[in-house]
Design a protein that fits this description.
- The chain is an alpha/beta fold.
- It is 25% helix and 22% strand.
- Helix 2 packs across helix 5.
Length: 252
């Protein structure tokens, strides 16, 4: 079989040692293969096309949100996700390079499953919005209204067209998730300047202004305090200070 130009088209393995014509071949970069179903994690996925589906649609249909894709290349040329691939076309699916430009203010919004990550980001001084009862529609609306980068492990949420800025968070443990986010975006950090409970700014406050709110032991042993400008939570260097310092020092 030859093309009209006399060249042999790409032929793709069908998983049984043979080949299939008429399929689009997605060659997925190693950094993105964890998003694929296990049976496709060798990195090559064949997708049928009817000539109307966009390349972006085909990529997302195999489990890779476009938020994670840096470039799509056909014959070494970068193409748009809106491109309609031809049968027998070979497409390179490349991951976003790191560090990734924020493309907007360093304000984050985390979904309901990332509460521990939210507290760590706030500890490092990152503007991080989080509610443990927010539904998907509310997250999408808030991300747009406040121009926040939505972080999630819900790939279905990342497919929402209304999202302008979003990203998938890797890792099952909060410390691993934090390392992934900081490696990807290189956020500006200002440790101990935000409330870990609500995310607003924390500012120094005289002891006399909060002494009536303190437990006797804290009143007797501590002299330096800070208070959240929004929820009023009071902070001082307590028993967990050394552990928190270690976390901060690992990332600053």
């Amino acid at each position: 079989m030859t093309t009209s130009a006399g060249r042999r088209p790409h032929r793709f393995a069908d998983g049984k040692g043979g080949y299939r014509d008429g399929m689009v071949r997605l060659e997925v970069s190693r950094q993105l293969r964890f998003l694929l179903p296990v049976r496709w994690r060798a990195g090559v996925v064949e997708v049928a096309t009817d000539g109307t589906a966009s390349l972006g649609h085909l990529v997302q249909s195999v489990g890779i949100p476009l938020t994670e894709v840096g470039e799509l290349r056909v014959a070494g040329r970068t193409v748009s996700p809106a491109t309609r691939p031809a049968p027998d076309e070979r497409v390179e699916v490349l991951a976003r390079p790191r560090p990734q430009p924020l493309d907007g203010p360093p304000r984050l919004l985390l979904d309901v499953h990332l509460g521990a990550l939210a507290r760590r980001l706030r500890l490092l001084g990152v503007d991080t919005a989080y509610r443990n009862d927010a539904v998907d529609e509310e997250l999408v609306e808030q991300a747009g209204r406040e121009d926040r980068l939505l972080l999630t492990q819900d790939r279905g949420l990342l497919l929402r067209r209304a999202l302008r800025r979003a990203a998938y968070v890797r890792g099952s443990r909060a410390d691993d998730q934090l390392a992934d986010v900081l490696d990807r975006f290189r956020l500006p950090l200002a440790p101990y300047t935000r409330c870990t409970a609500c995310g607003d700014e924390v500012r120094p406050v005289p002891k006399a202004a909060v002494v009536h709110l303190l437990e006797p032991g804290t009143r007797r042993t501590q002299q330096n305090f800070a208070r959240c400008t929004s929820c009023g939570r009071i902070y001082w260097r307590g028993a967990h200070a050394a552990r928190l310092d270690r976390l901060v020092n690992r990332h600053t």
